[in-house]
Amino acid sequence: MSNISDAFKNGKAFIGFVTAGDPDLDTSLEIMTSMAQGGCDLIEIGIPFSDPIAEGPVIQEADLRSLENGTTTDKVFDLTKKLREKVDIPLVYMTYLNVLFKYGYDRFLQNAKESGVSGVIVPDLPFEEKNELQSVISLIAPTSEDRIKMIAGDAKGFIYTVSSMGVTGMRNEITTDLGSIVSHIKSVTDTPVAIGFGINTPEQAKKYSAFADGVIVGSAIV
Questions:
Q1: What secondary structure letter does DSSP report for 9?
Q2: What confidence tens digit (pLDDT) does each residue in 2-34 have?
Q3: Are the CB atoms for 17 and 63 separated by under 8 Å?
Q4: Sign of the C-alpha dihedral computed for residues 194, 121, 201 and 168 taken in this order
């Protein structure tokens, strides 16, 4: 099974996100396989949730379509096992704390590991409660400056740097001084830093990968 660090070993990492089960599970498998073949270095697999508070309308609607189609956490595990047979790049889940809590933390993480997943992104998990879960990927927001040393010093896999305040979605312009935030993060950790939330053009990806270790594209793919 690939480690998250493998995504960054050949230079800048392109990280793609897609919602599992949208428009259906079989098509999801085809999409994610194509993403790997097309150059994704790591895939974030979204486990749908009814109230995805960090997501903009594009991914919210994808979650709702997936849930209406009957996607469950167990079906996402099965889908991931099928994907793992086809691709060898690192895979991580992105979902919400209620999904893990309802499923059971230990049971979820064990099944995720058996499915071939190397980490989990949980946007609504407070850093102070992170010790309850292993393999959680840390997020640093534009408002986290006073907490960067604490969050980054404990980070595993990669650090998900949120480009802008608000929710996910395609943005024409990102005004946050990401260069200084990434520089601050890199001064306290060797963990790779990837930027997400809003990146949707090759020009943006090139701009931010100049100083970050990778870029994350979600809504534009969904």
A1: T
A2: 799 999 998 999 999 999 999 999 999 999 999
A3: no
A4: negative
